[in-house]
Design goal:
The protein is α+β, with helices and mostly antiparallel strands. It is about 45% helix and about 15% strand. The strands form 2 sheets. Strands 5-1-2-10-9 form a 5-stranded mixed sheet, with no helix packed on it. It has a 5-stranded antiparallel sheet with strand order 3-4-8-7-6. A hairpin with a 3-residue loop joins strand 1 and strand 2 (about 105-115). It starts with a helix and ends in a 5-residue tail after the last helix. This is Tetratricopeptide repeat protein. Keywords: Membrane, Transmembrane, Transmembrane helix. It holds the Pfam family TPR_16.
Length: about 450
């Protein structure tokens, strides 16, 4: 109740004097009913607040109990750490599933079965062709083989080089023709590699003696020559001191002279070379080894013997014999090339690089020697050295497309896409690229056209 209202009611009940009422004249009675309503509203508001707090607390406690029951929160009271974002699994690298070699007598065909389509790089230099499949895993073991054909020899090898797969083909001669293409085969892909083998040379029929033309034409009898002046002169008197006797002219043959033609006898080196051309490698090796014993350090005999060892599949024999010959003739670049090719066939790419780096001839004199060295640098991953050497070769002969292609591949590996794309385009403008190499250069030039 209000104190003011109590005082006013007290004045009314006591019938107080006007003077006493005058002291409380300014006071107004309080609306007790409104105050009671406001007090009830305040109590109701406070009750609702407390009720809401209790309901919210009960809800949170129930939620906590539910999570504990479901095992989302351990009893120790420690909340689990926030789960990290799931790691995206790495893309599975393409795989080389199988290598299927075929030899039908006219060509060697290698079929490489892949689980998907992959780009590959082709490098061709001086009797060696390399196909490199970047980022491809070799499912099985490395494979290699050799094909011997009359007049030619071919070695091939498919193995893993770091994270890549390399297909290396090395022929005996400088002109090695390799055709390659990638095509779908169901849900797989096949990389076809075809190498035509040199045709067997046709042996010339022996020429009979009667078939040979006469070495000299038949000799016709000549007209009788006039006698000299002394023959018609008068005889000297008998008292002459000396009797002049006329000299007798030489007797003339009555018919044409007899012509004798001896049969042709080739020398030992020609016999060995013919045996090598016919594919008779054991005979060629025997003949050349005999010549080597008699002629010693004859460079021509050494080169042909090294070729015979290489063509006859005598790799280990050549690798054990030729280094000693090179030690005596260190500046013979052809012997050094033959040794490097043998090392490449055996898979010793580092050894081939070391061989070619020693006593290298002048680049101006033998650019193909340095081209093989630049290509071998790429087999060992020496991209800086390969690019530097290819730049020197291109400065000498800018129109050589294979050198432009080799430089482009090296620059791409060195993360110089703009320069690599430019040299891919220059390779397409040059000469010497086959269809597959031209297709590869075109694809890489398009892919790198907008980069850099």
């Amino acid at each position: 109740m209000s104190l003011v209202n109590d005082m006013l009611r007290d004045l009314e009940e006591r019938r107080a004097a006007p003077a006493e009422r005058l002291a409380l004249e300014g006071l107004q009675p309080v609306d007790e009913a409104g105050a009671a309503r406001r007090e009830r509203s305040e109590r109701l508001r406070r009750g609702l607040v407390w009720l809401g707090a209790v309901v919210l607390l009960g809800f949170l406690v129930g939620l906590m109990i539910g999570r504990v029951v479901n095992g989302q929160i351990p009893w120790g009271g420690n909340f689990p750490k926030r789960e990290e974002a799931a790691v995206v699994p790495a893309v599975v690298a393409p795989r080389l599933l199988e290598v299927l070699p075929q030899n039908n007598g006219h060509s060697l065909v290698l079929q490489l079965l892949l689980d998907r389509s992959v780009p590959y790089q082709r490098i061709e230099e001086s009797g060696a062709v390399s196909l490199r499949l970047p980022g491809v895993q070799l499912a099985g073991q490395a494979q290699s083989g050799r094909v011997q054909h009359p007049g030619s020899s071919l070695s091939w090898r498919v193995d893993a080089q770091g994270s890549d797969v390399q297909v290396l083909l090395v022929g005996m001669g400088d002109n090695l023709e390799v055709r390659d293409r990638l095509e779908p085969a169901g849900d797989r892909w096949l990389l076809w590699i075809e190498v035509p083998l040199a045709p067997t040379p046709v042996a010339e029929a022996p020429v009979e003696l009667e078939q040979l033309p006469s070495a000299t034409p038949a000799i016709e009898p000549e007209a009788e020559a006039p006698l000299p002046s002394w023959a018609s002169a008068p005889l000297a008197p008998a008292s002459a001191p000396a009797k002049v006797v006329a000299p007798q002219p030489p007797a003339r043959p009555s018919g044409p002279p007899e012509v004798k033609i001896a049969p042709y006898q080739p020398d030992a080196l020609s016999v060995a070379r013919q045996a090598l051309q016919d594919g008779d490698y054991p005979r060629a090796i025997r003949e050349l080894e005999t010549l080597h014993k008699t002629r010693g350090r004859d460079p021509e005999v050494l080169r042909w013997l090294a070729r015979a060892y290489l063509a006859g599949g005598q790799q280990q024999r050549l690798l054990g014999w030729l280094p000693a010959q090179l030690a005596q003739m260190p500046h013979d670049s052809e012997l050094r090339l033959l040794l490097a090719r043998t090392q490449l066939q055996a898979g010793d790419t580092k050894g081939a690089v070391a061989t070619l780096e020693q006593n290298a001839p002048s680049l101006l004199q033998e650019p193909t020697y340095h081209a093989l060295l630049a290509a071998s640098y790429q087999q060992t991953g020496q991209w800086q050295e390969s690019a530097a050497l290819y730049r020197q070769l291109i400065a000498l002969r800018p129109s050589q497309a294979t050198w432009q292609l080799g430089l482009a591949i090296a620059l791409e590996q060195l993360d110089q896409p703009a320069e690599a794309g430019r040299h891919y385009r220059l390779a397409l403008q040059g000469l010497g690229l086959d269809e597959s190499a031209r297709r590869f250069a075109s694809e890489r030039a398009s892919a790198l056209g907008g980069r850099g």
